[in-house]
Amino acid sequence: MATEIKLTRKDFMSDQTVRWCPGCGDYAILATVQKTLPRLGIPKEKFVFVSGIGCSSRFPYYMDTYGIHSIHGRAPTLATGIKLSNPDLSVWVITGDGDALSIGGNHILHAGRRNVDLNILLFNNRIYGLTKGQLSPTSPVGTKTKSSPYGSIERPLYPVEVALASGATFVARTIDVLQKEMGEIMYQAALHKGLAFIEIMQNCVIFNNGAWFDYSDRKKRADNDLFLEAGKPMVFGKNRDKGLVLDEEQGGFKVVEIGEEYSIEDITIHDPTSLENAFLLSQLDYPMPLGIIYQVTKPTYCEGMWGQIQQVKAQKGEGDLHDLYFNADTWEVTAEEEEIKAEVRGQVDASLDEAYIDELLGVEAPEADLAEQLASMTLHDLKPKAPITIRPDALMDHALHLMREHGIGALLVVSPDRHLMGIITEADILDRVAGKDIDLHQVTVQEFMTTEPVALPLYASVLEAVHFMTQRRFRHLPVVDENLHPVGVISSRDLAEFLIKHL
Amino acid sequence: MTEQKHVPVKELEDVVIRFAGDSGDGMQLTGSQFTNTAAIVGNDISTFPDYPAEIRAPAGTLGGVSGFQVHLAEHDIWTPGDSPHVLVAMNPAALKVSLPDLEPGAIIIVNTDAFTPGNLKKAGYESNPLEDGSLNQFQVIPVPITTLNRNAVQDVEGLDKKSIDRSKNFFALGLIYWMFDRPLEPSIEWVKKKFGKRAPAVAEANIKALQAGYFYGETAEIFQTRFRIKPAKLPPGTYRKISGSEAAAIGLVTAARKANKPLFYGAYPITPASDILHNLAPLRNFDVITFQAEDEIAAMGATVGAAFAGAMAVTGTSGPGIALKSEAMNLAVMLELPLVVIDVQRGGPSTGLPTKVEQSDLLQIMFGRNGESPMPVLAASSPADCFDTVIEAYRLAVRAMAPVAVMMDGYLANSSEPWRIPDPDTIEPIVIEHPTEPNGPDGKFLPYKRDPVTLGRPWAIPGTPGLEHRVGGLEKSPEYGNVSYAPEHHQRMVNERAAKVARLADIIPEQEVFGPEEAELLVVGWGGTYGAIHAAVSQAQAKGQSVAQVHIRYLNPFPRNLGFILQNYDKILVPELNMGQLAMLLRDRYLVDVISLNKVQGRPFKVSEISAKIDELLAGE
Ligand code: SF4
Fold first, then answer.
1. Which residue of A81, A469, B258, B573 is most buried, as measured by CB atoms within 10 A?
2. Mean pLDDT, residues A458-462
3. Distance of alpha carbon A488 from its chain centroid, rounded?
4. A308 chain-B contacts, CB cut-off 8 A
5. Nearest-CA distance A408 → chain B (Å)
6. Cα nearest neighbour of A328 on chain B
7. Sign of CA dihedral A108, A113, A114, A119
8. Taking Cα atoms as reference points, which of A82, A66, A351 lies closest to residue B305?
9. pTM listed for this prediction
10. ipTM score assigned to the predicted complex
């Protein structure tokens, strides 16, 4: 792929006029990025630059790539969303010391911890530039600004230390005046899989000029800057006569002169995979370590996320909406069932609905169409006779008298508040009395009645009545209203007459 | 005549049952088991879990009471019921907390074993309410549940006393199953599936407890009645039980499929929105990326980034989260990127009442961002409706190229109802055309050159050659999108961002009216109050009162015929679980005199509260 794409710095320059203050370190950084990207062999449309708020955060407007100038401190969050959604993109975060370490501090920590495959360029000028010169979280103690006229009393954060603590897998530092070295670090960061964090010491000519003078000045930097190279001794100085030696007792690096006491062999070799050494280096300001301080390979967040997606697909197969919808206990409501349910409405029986429905469907005698007709008619249509009722404490001979008088075979026993309590039928009486010497003047209805009989509401279907009469061999069925007050009685004879008349 | 001897079964139109105990008593589980069985048997259901605000208050205290309310009915139901007909109280605190909701005559089943002097004291009872006559107006059924359960479960090997006692909620459940004539099988199956392999002893204990409770009901002769709820009449189809959180999650996955995009859901844990995240997280094989962010801000930022990258981007939160997200929501308004923000509302202000229901974020969603920042707003009206609402929200988002808010609430999110499962193939695709060619002069791509009809801008996604462009939170020039503070540019961009939202009214359905087109009273609501309002209006109409109902799903923009509808009624009543937020919008927009019915008690409306207001307003005629 790399051979096919021929891009130059110009391809990455947008048509917008760059508007930083003349002499601002940001210009050099912009130029270096624009020169580095063509080396990567990545098609231009795959780059996305995301920034927060601050002078540096104007950066995306000057890049002819996809870009978002977002809100203060939040660039890492947008970048995470972009990279997760399309891991194919090369996503760059442009941020400053206030943006990344003050208002957006939390997001830097979590981008590092997750090892999101982003390239974060933190422009550290140790001041708030855009808001015209307040102290920043990287300003040294004592810094006098408009908001700290007596000097800062806050201890600063060191971006490299924060990045290491967060778990970033590539941590480097560079400085705006050294474009070649900066470009090489950016190149390595872009190749790195995982979170690459680069602190760029940047000069703000207006509000904090010379903040990095010791490390950027042509005369001073040779003595003060330490250029780290993996596998090489950490030597620095104009004459390369100084070096770092790990001081076990002090628990840090000490600066030694190479000569009598120490030889080049004594100088500690830079091992970018050592987190301990990286932390020790992050504490130094003399010399100032520049270059790749720490680099290890760990699984990235996107690999984890899309790996899970592939893994779950392998286990469960490509997601299917139909399966998703039905992944629960389901039940069917059919038009037919609805009708049947309507039929059993109001039946006063203890059997479960299902069992009852099954039983109802199992009624053999009437043919299908007959059953349908019967199901469509209610007991209303059958015009049940008004019930003859009796109180439970009445005497049995009174009951017999009533039956004879009305020419009926059953009486309904009701409580004083008109609730159906029982039924008393000819058959009951015969069963109990036959062959026994029972004085019907002495016993009450209560002792003879059948308690809690099956009753049907008025709106029950005739089919239900047929069911009870044929299957359960009842000869009389009380009919009740919704308050369980009896409103009628149906006898098997009534039913037979009704059937003959209607069918 | 041969007759069976049995406890009579009373047919009910509907019944409301509440299970209440310590949060450690498994009352949520018990309630949801009962609900599952109810649904399988075919009743209409509506549930309302009432989580304790404190995750684990000390057992036995009022703060630790956890409840689950189930409403079963043979007809369509819309609310979890006003006041429980049956209360299962596992301890004195549960009894005390629930008593104010009960009406005289309600049945209370109490676990007498838990009415120890210690527990009574913890609940703040000076004397034992089971003995002091204070419950005379209720039908109290004392059952020594702990003891009975211990007897029933004691032979299960490998369980200590504590684990045995843990199964007592299943004893209570079995008792309720008997009382309401429910089959045990679905719960037995569930227990086997849930515990069978991992903890056979627990499974056995729970099944034994369940059966023991059922048999106790059958043999103890302490109940005068059993109840049966007639099966609900629902339109034909295949149904399942669904909560609002589930429906929202499934709806989002559906929308992503229909839009042919991966779903990016960025969220930070917050009650009561987290269940949407929980429901989405397992669905990786649907190309679902769930991003549990470090904070609400990051969740929103990542969602904006995902939208820029071309994913279907969604975030979900509750009011306090919206407060934190508002800056990045505003960025989405400015970048003009399509995404969905779900607000599962809870009681406020501040941390407020995290587990309680309220509708008080409407104005926050409408106006809670700096600058002129209009956002389309939709509200779901029932748990199952969350499915349709989120799909609709995304349709609008990609049309207007704008973030769209979906209002839910804790009650919708946690409640369940039967959902008629649609055929996924019949859901319309969400057609999105990402440009691939420049749209400006000299091969330039103009990111803010709007569609003349929708006023949406082109959604060019990174990776498309030739369309590289920058967007940002700064005001910009029309069409070109370059940073510009020119007076006429700002005015025009503000106008256009408002106009594209307003133009959604061209395609959203006209507002429907339930009831007469002209009447004395119109009741206007939005969101999760649908059920209560609908029940009250239905009842009023059945009584012959001159009332109609309008329930607004589209809160911004309003349906184009809404203003016209409002003119056809003498009085307009707006019940809301806030202090009058929709009322304010209606007054402002239509200059109509609306009457508010407001409630902020952390609870849904009772049907009776709305009915009373309807009666009051009509009595004046
Ligand atoms: S204020 Fe400082 S940092 Fe900002 S552009 Fe000017 S020189 Fe650069």
1. A81
2. 76
3. 61
4. 284
5. 15
6. B240
7. positive
8. A82
9. 0.74
10. 0.75
